[in-house]
Structure formats: C-alpha cells, structure tokens
Design brief:
The chain has a single domain, classed as P-loop containing nucleotide triphosphate hydrolases (Rossmann fold, 3-Layer(aba) Sandwich). The chain is 54% helix and 8% strand. It is built from 17 helices and 5 strands.
C-alpha cells in the first residue's frame, strides 16, 4: 500500500474511533499471581468479561446479567477489544521506562505496567458496581476487531477473571451488522453501500425476493470470514487460557429459554438465580435497541424484525449463501446451525 493510501486508511480509522490505532501485537507484561492476589485485596469484587462478535446478542446478555441483585454488567469499556486498548496507558516508551527504571523504588525492581493496568480497570469496574450496590462486576465489549488477541490481552491482566463468549448464527450476525452500519454509520459507507441502503429503504421487495443483495461482494466475504475468525480464535484461546473459567452460550438458546440459560451463567459467576424468573421474562419483552433504530432510520429499520432468529433466510441471495457456505460452512456445522452444506 502506498504511503498516501496508508494515511487515508489511518485518517478513516481516526474518524471512526476518535484516535489512531495502537499496535495490537505490542506485548504487555502479564501480571504475576502475587500481584493479582494483591490487587484483589484492594479491589475484591469477582470480575467477568463478555465477548462476542458484533450483533451477536452481547447487549441483551448484559441486560439480563445485571438483573441479578448481586451482578453488575455495563458495556463498551473495550479494555481489551478495541484500540487504543487499556494497554495504551503504558506502551508509550517514556511511560514504560518510568514504570520500570531501576531508580524508581516503588516498583520493587519490576515493571509496574501490569499493576497499573489492573488497578485502572479494577477501579473503573468497581466504582460503577458499588454505585449500583452490586458485588460481582463485568464488562461486555464485542471482540470482533481483535478476535483471539483480545483473549490473550485479557488473560495477561485478568488471569483470575471469568470469560463469557456468546455465539450467534454468523449469517444473522452479518445481516444485523450490515443494517447497523446502514443506520448508525452512514458516514463510513461507500457510494455503493449508500446506493444499496437507499434502494432498500425505497423498495425492499426486490431484496426480500432474493433479486438483490444487501451486501457487496466484498462485504459478504469479509462478514463471513470475520465471523469464522472470531468464533474459532475466541473459543480456542478461551478454552486454552481460561479453562474452567470460560463459558460459551448461543444467542438462539438464550431466546428460546432465557431463564434457563441465564441461570446457568449466573451459577457460573457464583450467584444464586432463585426467584428471578419473572423479571427475566419481563426483560425479554423489551427491545430498546430496536426502538432506537426505528427512531433514527425508520425507512430502513421498519422492514426488519430486530433480533429474530433466521432473518438471513429472508434476505440472503443464492450468491450470499454460496459465499457463506464456502467460508463459514464448516463452522456453522460445528455449532449446529446446519447439519451439512445442503442449505
């Protein structure tokens, strides 16, 4: 890529996220067991983190989790999931030198970086939880920008935390993410994307009849590959690095049996779900995100039933299906979204 092209890419990134990217592969010194134990003396609340691909039900899951009188879950801290990342607090060369220099008698001869990162995140999490009167606290932040790298970064600072990963049918996730961009990120769309968006708003019938795709050829391939990478990398590293502290659930199961699924998750977090079924059922009746999207872009959102399982069947063209079969077919089978490639 030319220097001019790189500059344009960086400018677009800064416009979208408000800052330039930090090198996600730059290393963070892992916190050692003694430092983690010491951190818990100051910040004793058990911590958990919810990862998932964008539009996979992470917000719904967080809403349900925080219904428990002991559990607080807020969202989008992006400590480990979106640049600039928590580690940017210590990756500046001068800051790194300050935290590890031999004349700094506070560092006990070691690098203070992991302690600083843990203390910063712990304070942010527990401050919010204490205000809510809760004793178990977590953050939900989709990890599809960094995939498995997010798991590694989390493990380096929170080896004692619990990691929850929610999975949704990649076809529905891709479709939902596409329409989220149509509604919430118009300034990031290409001319071709805008033309598709406007055509759908004006006359959706040709799209629902399979005559036109809501995707460009490039975007459908990127969506399929992004979902596969996210699911495969996160589950592999989650199981490897967090072992019994790693929990997976599927969005579709959460819709089908919400109290059963959230009860299992609450028990995983060490709290009792007894007596909470009614409030879970009531929470499932609301969909604030859908209401917001209808308000913001009714012409596009009005034709969609947000959060429904199997929406891809209404809008995927034969070409869209073939791309997903090619790239994501085996992963769909692994997670029982399909039995074979004959769909």
């Amino acid at each position: 890529m030319s220097k001019f092209g790189k500059r344009l890419k960086l400018a677009a990134y800064a416009l979208r996220y408000g800052s330039l990217p930090v090198n996600a592969s730059s290393k963070v010194i892992p916190i050692n067991p003694d430092e983690a134990a010491e951190a818990r003396l100051f910040f004793p609340m058990p911590k958990f983190f919810v990862f998932g691909h964008a539009r996979s039900g992470t917000t719904l899951l967080a809403r349900l989790l925080r219904l428990h009188p002991e559990v607080h879950c807020n969202w989008q801290a992006h400590f480990f999931t979106r640049p600039p990342l928590l580690k940017s607090l210590v990756t500046d060369p001068q800051v790194a030198d300050w935290l590890s220099r031999p004349s700094n008698r506070w560092n006990r001869g070691d690098d203070l970086s992991p302690v600083v990162l843990r203390a910063a995140a712990d304070f942010i999490l527990e401050r919010d939880a204490r205000r809510a009167g809760k004793s178990v606290v977590g953050d939900k932040s989709p990890n599809n920008l960094l995939n498995g790298e997010s798991v590694t970064l989390l493990r380096s600072i929170y080896p004692d935390a619990r990691l929850v990963f929610i999975i949704r049918d990649g076809r529905d996730a891709a479709l939902s993410h596409r329409f989220q961009n149509f509604i919430d990120a118009r300034e990031q769309l290409s001319k071709q994307d805008i033309a598709i968006r406007d055509a759908f708003a004006k006359d959706p019938h040709s799209f629902f009849e399979g005559q036109r795709s809501v995707f460009t050829p490039k975007s459908i391939r990127e969506a399929a590959q992004g979902w596969v990478d996210n699911v495969q990398q996160t589950t592999h590293l989650g199981r490897e690095l967090f072992t019994e502290r790693f929990f997976t659930l599927q969005y579709e199961d959460l819709l089908k049996a919400p109290f059963e699924q959230i009860s299992k998750l609450w028990q995983f977090l060490g709290v009792n779900p007894k007596g909470l079924e009614d409030i879970v059922v009531a929470e499932m009746q609301s969909n604030p995100d859908a209401a917001w999207q209808r308000q913001k872009a009714g012409a596009v959102a009005a034709n969609l039933e947000k959060g429904r399982r199997g929406s891809w069947r209404d809008l995927f063209t034969p070409g869209d299906k073939e791309v997903f079969k090619e790239i994501a077919g085996e992963t769909l089978i692994t997670w029982n979204y399909e039995q074979d490639l004959d769909w």
